[in-house]
Design a protein that fits this description.
mainly beta, 7-stranded mixed sheet
Length: about 110
């Protein structure tokens, strides 16, 4: 059974950092395109970025330079490192493989 479990969310002050984790089971992240999305209250889901099977990454323009996606092949886990967080980054963050999405983890940026 394919499963994605996100963790690492929380409350952080503007300018702070968080690292989200996405643990995968039922498939191998190394051979896959893994994406991160986010959804703020009252807004549509927004693509954050992705990591590809060759290790290349790509990001939505507003996150480029602040967010970094990586993976740990041994742990079959993908990470989203978020730095210099802003209040507008507040959202539920999800990882996704094909059409499968995890339950999400809440990130709140507030002073």
């Amino acid at each position: 059974e394919v499963q994605l479990v996100e963790s690492g969310g929380g409350l952080v002050q503007p300018g702070g950092s968080l690292r989200l984790s996405c643990g995968a089971s039922g498939f191998t992240v190394t051979r896959s395109v893994m994406s991160w999305f986010r959804q703020a209250p009252g807004k549509e889901s927004e693509w954050v970025g992705a990591i590809y099977s060759d290790g290349d990454t790509n990001y939505e323009a507003a996150m480029k330079g602040r967010f970094t996606i990586s993976r740990d092949d041994a742990k079959n886990t993908v990470y989203l490192q978020m730095d210099n967080l802003k209040p507008e980054d507040t959202a539920v963050y999800y990882c996704q493989w094909r059409s499968v999405r995890g339950q999400g983890t809440q990130v709140t940026v507030s002073s």
